[in-house]
Specification:
single chain; 398 residues; alpha/beta; seven-stranded mixed sheet; globular; binds pyridoxal-5'-phosphate
C-alpha cells in the first residue's frame, strides 16, 4: 500500500481571478439578473459555435438558461414534444435527458448504445422509429464529448420526419469537420454545471439555427412574456407593458452567472488542451495492461470525461470494488452513467431491464470515470495512473 497521501478530487472547477473580477463587476453594476451580460454571453457562445462564418445556412442562435435540464425541456417543447408524443434516446445518459420529456407529458423510448462507444446506435434508431410513429424527436447524447454519428442519425431522422435534439451537455467544444457538436441537428443543449467543461456553477445554453424553434424557446424561457426581459426595462415602451402568449417557465440565466460563463468561454480551448494532455498520459499508462480498455475516442472529442473500462475476465475484482479501492488511495472516481433501467422510477414506468439493453449493461458493469480537469498537476496525474496500474497488477487474474 502506498504511503502517498495525496488526494485527487474527482472534479474541481477552474475558476480564476478573471471570473472573480467579472462577478464583482456585475454585482456592483446594479443589474444582477438577466440583462446585457447574458446577451453578450449568448452572442459570444453562438460565435464560438460558428467561427467560420455561416455561408448560406442560417446563423446559430444561442439562448442562455439556468440548466441543461431546463434547456432540454425548452428544446423538446419547441420541437413539438408533448402529450401523445415520445422521444427516443439511450438509457446511458443522465436522467434529465429523459425526465425533461416526461415533464412535458411525453414518453421516452430507449435504444441501446453501440457495442464499443457509449453513444446511440443508428441502426437501433432506424428500427425504433419504424416501430413507433409516436416518436417525435431523437436525442443523441455525445457521451464524454465523443461525438455521435450525426450524419447518419440526422439522415435517418430526416427520412422519418422526426427532429433531432443533441444532448451536448458533455460536448463543448467538440467539433467534427469544422462543425461543432450542438449545431448538427435541429437544436443542441449544453450544460454549465460545476463539473462540465466550462461552468457557470449552474447553467446551460440552447442552440438552434431554426427561427421558429428559437422564437418558441425565447417565449417559454421567460414566463411566456412576449418580449425579451432586458428589453422590458430598457426599451422606450413602458416596462409594465407586456402580453403573456403562453404558459411559460422560468429558465433564464442571471448576469452574475453569465459573467462567469464569458470568462470560461475564453478559456475553453485552453482547458481542452489541458484535458487532452491528461487523457494522453492516462492512455500511455493504461494501454500496456490488457486488464483495461481505453475510452472510445474519435476526432473532435471535447474529452469531458475519462471513462476507463476494466475487463472482468482479467481481474479478480469487479468495478465496484475497483472504484472503492481507488477511493481508498485518494483518487476521486465516479460512474457515468447508471443506466435508466436501473432506476426504480423508470423500471416501474416502462418495465425495462438490463436484458433489453445488453450493450449499455455491459459498459456499465465495467466503467469507471477518473479525474479529468484542467487544474490537475502532473503529480496528481501520476498519482492516478500509479493507483490504477497498481490495482491492475494486484488483482490481475491472468
Ligand atoms: C449534466 C448533464 C445534463 C444536465 O445538465 P444540468 O445543467 O445539470 O441540468 C444533461 N445531460 C447530460 C448527459 C449531462 O451529463
Amino acid at each position: 500500500m502506498s504511503t502517498n497521501t495525496l488526494r485527487v478530487p474527482f472534479s474541481r472547477p477552474a475558476l480564476g481571478t478573471e471570473e472573480e473580477a467579472a462577478v464583482l463587476r456585475v454585482m456592483r453594476s446594479g443589474w444582477i439578473t438577466t440583462g446585457s451580460e447574458t446577451l453578450l454571453f449568448e452572442k459570444e457562445f453562438a460565435q464560438a459555435l460558428a467561427p467560420h462564418g455561416t455561408g448560406n445556412i442560417p446563423p446559430v442562435q444561442a439562448f442562455a438558461v439556468n440548466s441543461a435540464s431546463s434547456g432540454l425541456m425548452l428544446a423538446y417543447d419547441a420541437c413539438g414534444v408533448g402529450p401523445g408524443t415520445k422521444i427516443l434516446t439511450t438509457p446511458y445518459t443522465f436522467i434529465s435527458t429523459a425526465t425533461s420529456a416526461l415533464h412535458l407529458g411525453a414518453e421516452v423510448v430507449y435504444a441501446d448504445i453501440e457495442a464499443d462507444t457509449y453513444n446511440i446506435d443508428p441502426e437501433q434508431i432506424r428500427r425504433k422509429l419504424a416501430a413507433d410513429p409516436a416518436i417525435r424527436a431523437v436525442v443523441p447524447v455525445h457521451i464524454a464529448g465523443n461525438v455521435c454519428r450525426m450524419e447518419e442519425i440526422c439522415s435517418i431522422a430526416r427520412s422519418a420526419g422526426v427532429t433531432v435534439i443533441e444532448d451536448a451537455a458533455h460536448a463543448f467544444p467538440s467539433c467534427v469537420h469544422g462543425v461543432y457538436a450542438g449545431t448538427f441537428a435541429d437544436a443542441g443543449v449544453f450544460s454549465f454545471y460545476a463539473t462540465k467543461t466550462i461552468t457557470t456553477a449552474e447553467g446551460g445554453m440552447v442552440c438552434t439555427r431554426n427561427e421558429e424553434i428559437a422564437k418558441r424557446i425565447q417565449l417559454m424561457r421567460m414566463h411566456g412574456i412576449d418580449r425579451p426581459v432586458w428589453d422590458r426595462y430598457t426599451s422606450p415602451k413602458p416596462s409594465w407593458q407586456y402580453d403573456i402568449a403562453a404558459a411559460g417557465w422560468k429558465c433564464n440565466l442571471p448576469d452574475i452567472l453569465s459573467a462567469i460563463g464569458r470568462e470560461q468561454l475564453k478559456k475553453a480551448h485552453q482547458f481542452l488542451e489541458q484535458r487532452t494532455a491528461i487523457v494522453q498520459a492516462y492512455n500511455r499508462a493504461f494501454e500496456q495492461y490488457d486488464c483495461f480498455t481505453l475510452p472510445p475516442d474519435s476526432p473532435g472529442n471535447a474529452h469531458h470525461l475519462y471513462i476507463l473500462r476494466i475487463r472482468p475476465d482479467k481481474l479478480t475484482i469487479g468495478r465496484d470494488e475497483f472504484a472503492a479501492k481507488l477511493m481508498e488511495r485518494g483518487v476521486g472516481v465516479s460512474v457515468h452513467f447508471i443506466p435508466h433501467f436501473h432506476m426504480s422510477y423508470i423500471c416501474g414506468r416502462y418495465g425495462i431491464t438490463a436484458h433489453d439493453f445488453p450493450n449499455a449493461q455491459r459498459q456499465y458493469e465495467r466503467s469507471l470515470t477518473l479525474p479529468l480537469w484542467p487544474g490537475m498537476t502532473e503529480e496528481m496525474v501520476s498519482h492516478v495512473t500509479a493507483a490504477v496500474t497498481a490495482l491492475g497488477k494486484e488483482y490481475y487474474a491472468g
